[in-house]
Amino acid sequence: SQQGEEDPQALSIQEGENATMNCSYKTSINNLQWYRQNSGRGLVHLILIRSNEREKHSGRLRVTLDTSKKSSSLLITASRAADTASYFCATDAPGAGSYQLTFGKGTKLSVIP
Amino acid sequence: EPEVTQTPSHQVTQMGQEVILRCVPISNHLYFYWYRQILGQKVEFLVSFYNNEISEKSEIFDDQFSVERPDGSNFTLKIRSTKLEDSAMYFCASSEGNSFMRCTFGSGTRLTVV
After folding, report:
1. If contacts are CB pairs under 8 Å, which of residues 44-73 in chain A contact chain B?
2. For the segment A47-92, what is each residue's pLDDT rounded down to a tens digit?
3. Residues of B numbered 23-62 whose beta carbons fall under 8 angstroms of chain A's beta carbons: which are they?
4. Strand ranges (DSSP E) for A38-96?
5. Distances (CA, A) of B103 to A66, A111, B7, B81
């Protein structure tokens, strides 16, 4: 089964609009994290939401988590051209020894100036 | 903000050669990781390392791979005999703890096997 599947796969918006990306997962999680990756570059941590949290904000980012639906969303408000990147959700599973993050395929966001 | 540093940023190697990818994790972090991303595909977990030993490894991390923390600051990934399919971006990461903790990733080493 696939853990951490984002949709849409690609999203193109105008600068100033809001961008919403979704992530679904299949197994129980400890945390869900969102990362950004500029083309060919490293992964930048954006925000972490714990399994007992429902919503979290950080600047222009808003993350929601619905554990009953096993889904999360990342909202970027008032988008800027510099937000153009791929966005990945990553989950880690509960239980001793579960150190690994499982990433989704990502949403490629293009913000048009 | 503290960073995870990886060197080199790009390495080209002949098939069958050994490569060592180097990483300097954040100094007060205790958990270290290697991930890889084949072009256009998902980021995949390879291995986690804690207290000088492997904590967890994936199916990808076979006998051709090894990790080492040789001197208390560096964390290395060695691929003994590279294959074409080892071509990927390799990311090192570190975290303070193993749960409820953000993972800080390096900017990656792009390995090209020819």
Report:
1. 44-45, 48, 50
2. 999 999 999 999 999 999 999 999 999 999 999 999 999 999 999 8
3. 31, 33, 35, 41-45, 48, 50, 55-56, 58
4. 43-50, 55-58, 61-66, 71-76, 85-92
5. 22, 27, 19, 29
* pLDDT tier, A11 (very low <50, low <70, confident <90, very high otherwise): very high
Q: What is the pLDDT of residues B22-37, one digit of tens each?
A: 999 999 898 999 999 9
Checking if the pLDDT of B66 tops 80, the result is yes
Tell me which DSSP letter residue A70 carries: T
Chain-centroid distance, C-alpha B78: 9
